[in-house]
Amino acid sequence: MFGIRIRFQSPLLLQTLTRLSPMAAAAAAAYSPNPNPNPAKRKIKRVGTHNGSFHCDEALGCFMIRLTDSFSDADVVRSRDPQVLDALDAVLDVGGVYDPSRHRYDHHQKGFAEVFGHGFNTKLSSAGLVYKHFGMEIISKELQLDVGHPDVLRLYLAIYKSFVEAIDAIDNGINQYDTDQPPKYVSNTNLSSRVGRLNPDWMDPDQSSEKENAAFDKAMALAGSEFLESIRFHTKSWLPARSIVNECLTARGNIDPSGEIMVLNKSCPWKLHLFELEEEFKIDPPIKYVLYQDDRSKHWRVQAVAVSPDNFESRRPLPLSWRGLRDEDLSKESDIPGCVFVHMSGFIGGNQSYDGALAMARAALKI
């Protein structure tokens, strides 16, 4: 059985990748049909995975490992022939061996139980294995920071949690929820499902290895583009928001002596960061209300913090007697001028001024 070497051939896919991040521009060069005009000057490394039906984990794993310095211009060889695989520089998702010293990253063998660590317990797929060993390098290159910089580790953990872990779990057949009840609906829009649909259709008369490898080419591009987009989001949005929330959480004692009211000095996504930072710094008592200015109305909002990131129940909802009231009726009931509204559930309210919103939060703590 021959190993099949493939490289990205679609100019449109290359353009898509290069728009996502600076790192993708360099990576895209490795996907061109002939990145090195004189290959005799440098040995082209080869990364192997299995042929046949493909999944998201090896498609993403092959993409990620080629973002590294060691494998930046590697050919991808798809084969199940042990003799072919043994001769390769790295092998993913096939071969029955996990040995990072030899760059062997399979997870199907009996007794394999490797996890990411850092509090994560999901069994790794080939994507998770590559990310575990190369993710810090990939992220440090994108951030243009030393691999030891704390922001590199923060993004390394955050991207595993929000992106890579789901691919590991789906590939290993791990349910998202501990329940024996059937799901209430079917969702086939996740990345693993979309990559799976790129496999040649069983009804297609052309079942050639050439068509299969062209489909895997598209699978690597799809998985890789979303991985790079996740890095871009975490770099440009997630990390700055975390810094803002961290700063505001640290300053909460200047807002109210209780330490249970936090004011955002800049509007940003704050909820998940707040939960993670509270846990990281052992904040006690936890934050009950977050104040921020609405960008459109310029009014101030006072929002009750939920009991957990995926729960609608608030730690301390705004008072029952305020709920559903607006404007003068609410100001009269609360004895606080400038009130605008309080939601029927008590999870959020508004005031025309910062002082008014702070007064609402302080009063709610006492009721």
Provide a quick synopsis of the model.
The protein contains 11 helices and 13 strands.
* Rg on CA atoms, Å: 26 Å
Secondary structure: helix percent:
40-55%
The whole-number mean of residue pLDDT values reads 91
The number of distinct helices, counting runs of at least 4 residues, comes to 11
Unreliably modeled segments? 8-13, 26-37
Shape: elongated
Alpha-beta classification: alpha/beta
User: What percent of residues are in strands?
Assistant: 5-15%
Distance between the termini: 75 Å
Identify the strand order in the major beta sheet: 1-3-2-4-6-5
- Give the number of DSSP strands: 13
H-E order:
EHHEHEHEEEEEHHHHEHEEHEEH
Tell me the major beta sheet. 6 strands, mixed
Protein name: UPF0160 protein-like
Family: Belongs to the MYG1 family.
Keywords: Signal
GO cellular component, one term: nucleus
Features:
alpha/beta, 42% helix
Task: Please provide a written account of the structure.
This is UPF0160 protein-like. InterPro entries: MYG1_exonuclease. Residues 1-26 form the signal peptide. Belongs to the MYG1 family. Keywords: Signal. The protein has 367 residues and is of the alpha/beta class. The chain is built from eleven helices and 13 strands. The protein has helices spanning 11-20, 22-30, 56-65, 82-86, 126-143, 150-171, 191-196, 209-250, 271-281, 327-334, 354-366, and strands at residues 4-6, 46-49, 75-78, 90-92, 98-99, 104-105, 115-117, 120-123, 261-263, 289-293, 300-304, 339-342, 348-351. A six-stranded mixed β-sheet has the order 1-3-2-4-6-5. A five-stranded mixed β-sheet has the order 9-10-11-13-12. Strand 12 and strand 13 (348-351) form a beta hairpin. The longest helix is centred in the middle third of the chain and has 42 residues, at 209-250.
